[in-house]
Amino acid sequence: MRRIVHFFQAVLPVAAAAGFLTSCQSKAKSPAAGGFPTPVVSVMETHRETVPIYSEFAAQTYARDMVEVRGRVDGYIEKRLFQIGSDVKAGQPLYVLDLRPYQADVQKARGDLGQAEANREYAKKQVGLVQAEADLAQAQANLSKAQQDVDRLQPLVKEDAAAQQDLDNANSSLNANKAAVHAREAAVEQARLSTRSQIDTAEGQVDSTKALLRTAELNLEYANITAPISGRVGDSLIQVGGLVTKTSPNPLTTIVPLDPIWVRFKVSESDYLDYVKRNNTNEPMHQVLELLLANNSIFPYKGRLENTVNQVDQKTGTLELQATFPNPQHVLLPGQFGRVRLQATIRQDVILIPQRSIQELQGQQSVLTVDQDDKVLARIVVTGERVGDRSVVLEGLKPGDRVIVEGLQKVRPGMLVKVTAYKHPPPPAQPASGGGRQ
């Protein structure tokens, strides 16, 4: 019995020690206070960056120089020479009207022109004037002969070698020939004036007939309706066989130029004034623009601002800006919606953090950070523009702070955490956008 007592006295201390050791090991393996494991969070270390800030504005494409194709002469359409919705070049034939009436007008005008030119040539030959001048020459010759007769008879009459009657007859003949010469001179002058008038009239008829021929030729050209500009042609409102009239209120079709394509968008008055102030210029925003399409893809060609309208819309307080984008493949069509992106400013030496790390409560923004002892701390921050999926931090953080990005739901200020590095996803294939406006 005594041996059994001594056995238990020796074994119990050993068992107690083993139990104590087991208890300590169990406590060492137990979870942290509260019965939960230490949470794991992903953090990023802040640093300063220089980033461009972009603004976005709702935009719409439009055709600034759209042309309505109309008939300039009347006629029935015999041919349509284009496919609806195809691209056409300036001067390309679109419609052919019935040409026969206009071809006949051209032929008639050419015949009238030939007749007028013949009349002009006849007038230029001055047939009447030539006859009058010939008569004048004959009268002058007769006058000269009469003068010679008088001159010959006068000395003979003084010497009584000739009769006074012969001298009187010679003087009468001389006076008659003088009168005939004066009459023929008047006739020549009258013929000269008449000939000039006939020539002028013939010249006027030639010019008038030429104008009629040109009008007929133009009408014949107008009967072949061509594209006035290059662009994409629309639907044909009058089909083959339909009547085209030059007074019709409806066009035959429309053509819209697509390269370049025009884009209009509106900015607020404050945005416009801020830009002018930042760039120290009174000119509009002459810079490279980007266009985001309806499927959020970026149009591959850059645009530039062309002009602004001359006043602010008093109803909306906005100013319309107009830009052009190269469109060689004619991908963009008038009437499409998208967003214009332009660089508003450049932020120098700013801290950016992922937008998902920012918590907002009752209008106040905050982030959770981890100090050097891996303890969670709350920071009140003030943010600025958005740059992609990140935000500019204006106040509340400094370079080197560790901001929790993932695992926010598992922690609260004052807790100890296990830290892992946050891996930021690759940036999208487009420039960052800050403070986008719609």
What can you tell me about this protein's structure?
With 438 residues, the chain is α+β, with helices and mostly antiparallel strands. It folds into 3 domains: 50-62 and 259-421, Efflux pump adaptor protein, beta barrel domain (Elongation Factor Tu (Ef-tu), domain 3, Beta Barrel); 67-99 and 224-252, Beta Barrel (OB fold (Dihydrolipoamide Acetyltransferase, E2P)); 100-219, Helix Hairpins. The protein contains 5 helices and 21 strands. α2 (100-124) runs antiparallel to α4 and α3 runs antiparallel to α4. The longest helix is centred in the middle third of the chain and has 59 residues, at 164-222. The model is unreliable at 1-33 and 429-438 (pLDDT under 50).
Sum up the structure in keywords.
438 residues, single chain, disordered C terminus, four-stranded antiparallel β-sheet, alpha+beta, 3 domains, OB fold (Dihydrolipoamide Acetyltransferase, E2P), Elongation Factor Tu (Ef-tu), domain 3, Helix Hairpins
What is the topology?
Layout: H1 2-29, E1 40-45, E2 48-62, E3 67-69, E4 75-80, E5 87-88, E6 93-97, H2 100-124, H3 127-158, H4 164-222, E7 224-226, E8 231-233, E9 243-244, E10 253-256, E11 261-268, H5 269-279, E12 288-292, E13 303-308, E14 318-325, E15 337-354, E16 359-361, E17 364-370, E18 376-387, E19 390-395, E20 402-406, E21 418-421
Parallel strand pairs: 1-21
Antiparallel strand pairs: 1-20, 2-11, 2-15, 3-10, 4-6, 4-9, 5-8, 6-7, 8-10, 11-14, 12-13, 12-15, 13-14, 15-19, 16-17, 17-18, 17-20, 18-19
Helix pairs in contact: 2-4, 3-4
